[in-house]
Design a protein that fits this description.
Blueprint: H1 11-20, E1 33-34, E2 42-43, E3 50-55, H2 56-62, H3 68-71, E4 77-81, E5 87-91, H4 98-103, E6 105-109, E7 112-113, E8 135-140, E9 154-159, E10 170-176, E11 180-189, E12 196-205, E13 214-226, E14 230-244, E15 249-250, E16 270-284, E17 292-306, E18 315-333, E19 336-355, E20 366-387, E21 392-409, E22 414-415, E23 426-428, E24 432-450, E25 453-464, H5 468-472, E26 474-475, E27 486-498, E28 502-519, E29 525-542, E30 548-561, E31 585-595, E32 598-607, E33 610-611, E34 619-620, E35 623-633, E36 638-645, E37 653-659, E38 662-667, E39 672-679
Parallel strand pairs: 6-9
Antiparallel strand pairs: 1-2, 3-8, 4-5, 6-7, 8-9, 10-11, 10-39, 11-12, 12-13, 13-14, 14-16, 15-38, 16-17, 17-18, 18-19, 19-20, 20-21, 21-24, 22-23, 23-26, 24-25, 25-27, 27-28, 28-29, 29-30, 30-31, 31-32, 32-35, 33-34, 35-36, 36-39, 37-38
Protein name: TonB-dependent receptor
Family: Belongs to the TonB-dependent receptor family.
Subcellular location: Cell outer membrane
């Protein structure tokens, strides 16, 4: 497909509508707190970074079936939906694929990363219990020193409710098109001094595409206990997914072909995933000058799936088990506040890849890989904040982190193929020990111009050590991968303001990444690619009083290659080219009306065109979607909700790709209706 002319379509109307409508509202600013930055509740107006939050009311109204349906409410965030519950994530970045894709954005639940460093998966957000969440927070740009590996482009943090007693109890039954069913239960238990909150979600989806449904179960248990000086918070989250996976449909603009939209080229594909995440946090001396916290956590996950996107269709089994510790201690120092911490975790992981059927001498039947890894991560960090005068404050942080891998190959070393193979695809490297030591830091100023306006400037760096699959899942005779950690350096300028009728948060940024890991023309994992990222983002919302309100999330990003590293399949210069799957403009706007027992929301989502491969010869043209949500409270206990997704019934692609010489698409669903009946005792 040739590069289309640049069209912003409905974006000007979305922006002007969201800016104009707040003038119809009235009220005062509500104070907001943010948890993710320092791992403790911090007033939003004191943060020297681009930080955004979706609260429980927004999540309840959205009633998302997938995180991509709420991620659009956050500037510069796109959770690109694959089939079923699969996803690829973008935060102030292109949608990054493969091991480096999930390793460049930190994904967490209650401040604890969902996966250990080196063991990420692009779909790992389905380990989080979205329906149980009390808030979702994002940090755009390199994360602060409280977090380490993988926070290159930013962070998505799914947070449980803070107080079990404040969370509403409910039973909700939902029906949707294509045999979609969901039950959501939330129940309080225990005494008021030691409350428990239990949440269960069960989903069965027949799937829009043929042979592409899924069943998913999620269970979360939250418990809090506190006295005058110490608070205990425990969270257990268990998720299970059994999915029939549909593959890409192929061909020029195939997502517009009514005869192909529901096709599933891979009815044999599947993904089975199971995860347990547990944590216990102790907060002490919260009212003193030396508050402290200790979080002990454990995680376990297993996943088995068919690699339907490769012609030889091997089956992969992977997983890991971790135990870890996060700690923090604060004190007054040199006229400011110093926070020190130690983080550590131990992980045991494994990966197996088996090809059930013969394909070719270069992709032989049988076991390709079977290895285990013992990993250890240890980090020290410090944060310092000081008021320089009544209006100006300075904050800075530094982190050192060490990650080591002890790799054990459980099969024979060397080529997987017979000696007669012409170009064997798979190579098993010998046992090894590898270590990576990385530093990150941030520093910035926050100028509180007056009670309603603040300007910030921030320098920050981030890193990610190589993923274990990049080090040990080698191909084409590569005997060892000599890789360095990826690094990023960012500068941003932001403005946070409150006006009479709306709040504004905007920033401009520039970031350079180096030592980017990629597969070269020989299909070897190597280090050396460079990319640059720059743009701006905007969050605008009306004050949340009065019958009408609106909000807007918009961003512009230019994401480009800044050298010619020799990518696989690219034999021309790509310096200055747009990185594939990196739309420049993304925007969403919502108009809400609330009156007595009624609440309704009209949402518009705009996604710009984007290149689908590095040479920029093939493009997806982008799309604009309209969604409608409404809720009616019939009594103090009973309510019904209605959602109409893709109300205009346009043809669009959830994800466009180019591979093996073909345009490939995950098709967006046509107009879909969801109805929910909710009982709240």
């Amino acid at each position: 497909m040739s590069k289309p002319s640049h069209r912003l379509r409905l974006l000007p109307y979305i922006v002007s509508l969201a800016i104009a409508l707040p003038q119809l509202t009235y009220g005062t600013q509500l104070e907001e707190v943010f948890v993710s930055a320092t791992r403790t509740a911090t007033p939003m107006q004191t943060l020297n970074m681009s930080a955004y939050r979706l609260d429980a009311d927004q999540l309840t109204l959205a009633a998302a079936t997938h995180l991509n349906e709420v991620a659009t409410r956050l500037p510069a965030v796109w959770v690109s939906r694959g089939n079923g519950q699969e996803s690829l994530v973008s935060v102030r970045s292109p949608v990054l694929t493969g091991s480096g894709g999930c390793g460049s954005i930190l994904m967490a639940q209650n401040n604890v990363p969902l996966r250990a460093p080196g063991f990420c998966n692009v779909n790992q957000l389905f380990d989080a219990h979205l329906e149980f969440a009390g808030a979702i927070e994002t940090i755009n740009g390199p994360t602060p020193a409280t977090y380490g590996a993988n926070g290159l482009h930013g962070m998505i943090n799914v947070l449980a409710p803070v107080d079990p007693r404040a969370a509403s109890e409910l039973i909700a039954l939902e029906l949707g098109g294509y045999n979609y069913h969901r039950i959501n239960i939330r129940q309080q238990l225990g005494a008021t001094t030691t409350p428990w909150l239990v949440g269960f979600t069960g989903i069965s989806d027949g799937g829009y595409k043929r042979d592409a449904g899924y069943d998913q179960q999620k269970l979360s248990v939250l418990h809090t206990r506190h006295n005058d000086t110490v608070k205990h918070t425990s969270l257990l989250s268990v998720t299970n997914l059994n999915q029939e996976t549909a593959g890409y449909i192929q061909g020029d603009d195939a997502y517009k072909d009514s005869g192909a939209k529901r096709d599933n080229p891979n009815p044999e594909a599947f993904r089975d995933a199971y995860a347990v995440n547990a944590m216990h946090r102790i907060d002490g001396d919260a009212e003193s000058i030396n508050p402290w916290s200790v979080t002990i956590f454990a995680r376990h996950n297993d996943m088995r799936f068919l690699q339907h996107y490769l012609p030889w269709q091997a089956v992969e089994e992977t997983g890991h088990t971790s135990v870890g510790l996060q700690s923090s201690w604060q004190t007054a120092w040199l006229g400011g506040k110093l926070q020190l911490g130690l983080d550590s975790q131990l992980t045991q992981g494994y990966l197996k890849e088996i090809q059930p059927e013969p394909f070719s001498p270069n992709q032989p039947q049988g076991a390709h890989y079977d290895y285990e890894i013992d990993a250890n991560t240890f980090a020290l960090y410090g944060l310092y904040t000081r008021d320089l005068n009544a209006a100006l404050s300075w904050s800075s942080g530094i982190r050192f982190e060490s990650t080591t891998y002890d790799y054990n190959n459980r099969l024979s070393d060397g080529s997987v193929c017979a000696p007669t193979a012409s170009a064997c695809r798979f190579y098993r490297t010998k046992d090894s020990n590898d270590g990576f030591s990385d530093w990150s830091g941030h520093s910035g100023l926050l100028w509180q111009v007056n009670d309603d306006h603040a300007i910030r400037v921030r320098l920050a760096s981030g890193y990610r050590p190589p993923e274990t699959s990049e080090l040990y899942r080698l191909q084409n005779g590569q005997t060892a991968a000599q890789l360095d950690s990826e690094s990023a350096h960012s500068i941003e300028l932001g403005w946070r303001a409150s006006f009479e009728h709306f709040d504004l948060d905007t920033s401009i940024y520039r970031m350079n990444k180096s030592d980017v890991i990629f597969q070269d023309a020989n299909r070897y994992y190597v280090t050396g690619a460079k990319t640059r990222h720059q743009g701006f983002e905007l969050k605008l919302r009306s004050t949340l009083t009065g019958p009408w309100n609106a909000d807007l999330a918009a961003s512009f990003g230019s994401h480009e290659y800044s050298n010619d590293p020799g990518y696989l399949g690219v034999n021309q210069s790509i310096v200055g080219n747009a990185i594939d799957t990196a739309p420049e403009w993304m925007a969403s706007a919502r108009i809400r009306y609330t009156q007595e027992a009624w609440q309704a929301e009209l949402e518009a989502i705009y996604l710009d065109r984007y290149a689908t491969e590095p040479t920029n010869s093939n493009w997806y043209e982008g799309h604009t979607l309209l969604n409608l949500r409404a809720n009616r409270q019939w009594s103090s206990s009973w309510s019904t909700s209605l959602r109409v997704m893709n109300m205009a019934n346009i043809d669009y692609a959830e994800r466009a790709d180019f591979g093996f010489g073909n345009e490939r698409f995950f098709v967006g669903e046509p107009r879909s209706l969801f109805v929910t009946l909710t009982y709240q005792p």
